[in-house]
Specification:
The complex is a heterodimer of chains A (112) and B (112).
Chain A: E1 5-7, E2 10-13, E3 19-24, E4 31-37, E5 44-50, E6 53-57, E7 64-68, E8 74-78, E9 87-94, E10 102-103, E11 107-111
Parallel strand pairs in A: 2-11
Antiparallel strand pairs in A: 1-3, 3-8, 4-5, 4-9, 5-6, 7-8, 9-10, 9-11
Chain B: E1 9-13, E2 18-23, E3 31-38, E4 45-50, E5 55-56, E6 61-64, E7 70-75, E8 84-92, E9 106-111
Parallel strand pairs in B: 1-9
Antiparallel strand pairs in B: 2-7, 3-4, 3-8, 5-6, 6-7, 8-9
The chains are: A mainly beta (112), B mainly beta (112).
């Protein structure tokens, strides 16, 4: 079965650079969630989209923005990167007819 | 969002049943109980969810108390591959949209 695809899987950026993470949901899933997981921490909810509109917002820094496109894929844009942004970033998707979401394998971002 | 309380860690002998408890005393009537697990730094894996009735699938069973204030995830025959952090999450449309907020989880170690 198709799963949530995230790219890239690994990314190394320097401080103050910009990064773009991509998420391709399971086919026909219309809701996307983004999470950040720092070293030794639990996943923290950042933001979600339903039918290309922002549906909920968590602890997402102002330097980050995200959007969902017409094909339902989503991108998380991160600017002015800081060392503390080094983390795993997970995307999850859900179909409106389901109550459970499914997660991708994540993007490991390292800021140096 | 309803909050959950889980023991920080548990051990279980291989081949025995692992019973992971979760308290969610402030759960609302339309909120589901979800269980996810995270093996090392992989993406969280959906296990099971339920509303009122007990549920069983190929991975686990979920027992929800009648007052819905607590639940137990049961892995009937734990294997070494079940070693992971297990998260109990409460979410539903009473929270606005479905949003999966991770707490601290239970670190389950299956012992050979």
């Amino acid at each position: 079965a198709a799963g949530v695809i995230q790219s890239p899987r690994h990314l190394i950026k320097e401080k103050r650079e910009t990064a773009t993470l991509k998420c391709y949901p399971i086919p026909r899933h219309d809701t996307v969630y983004w999470y950040q997981q720092g070293p030794g921490q639990d996943p923290q909810f950042l933001i979600s989209f339903y039918e290309k509109m922002q549906s909920d917002k968590g602890s997402i820094p102002d330097r980050f923005s995200a959007q969902q496109f017409s094909d339902y894929h989503s991108e998380l844009n991160m600017s002015s990167l800081e060392l503390g942004d080094s983390a795993l970033y997970f995307c999850a998707s859900r179909d409106r007819s389901l109550t459970e979401a499914f997660f991708g394998q994540g993007t490991r971002l390292t800021v140096v | 969002d309803a909050k959950t309380t889980q023991p920080p860690s548990m051990d279980c002998a291989e081949g025995r049943a692992a019973n992971l408890p979760c308290n969610h005393s402030t759960i609302s009537g339309n909120e589901y109980v979800y269980w996810y697990r995270q093996i090392h730094s992989q993406g969280p894996q959906y296990i099971i969810h339920g509303l009122k009735n007990n549920e069983t699938n190929e991975m686990a069973s979920l027992i929800i108390t009648e007052d819905r204030k607590s639940s137990t995830l049961i892995l009937p025959h734990a294997t070494l591959r079940d070693t992971a952090v297990y998260y109990c999450i409460v979410s539903g449309t009473t929270s606005g949209t479905y949003k999966y907020i991770f707490g601290t989880g239970t670190r389950l170690k299956v012992l050979a």
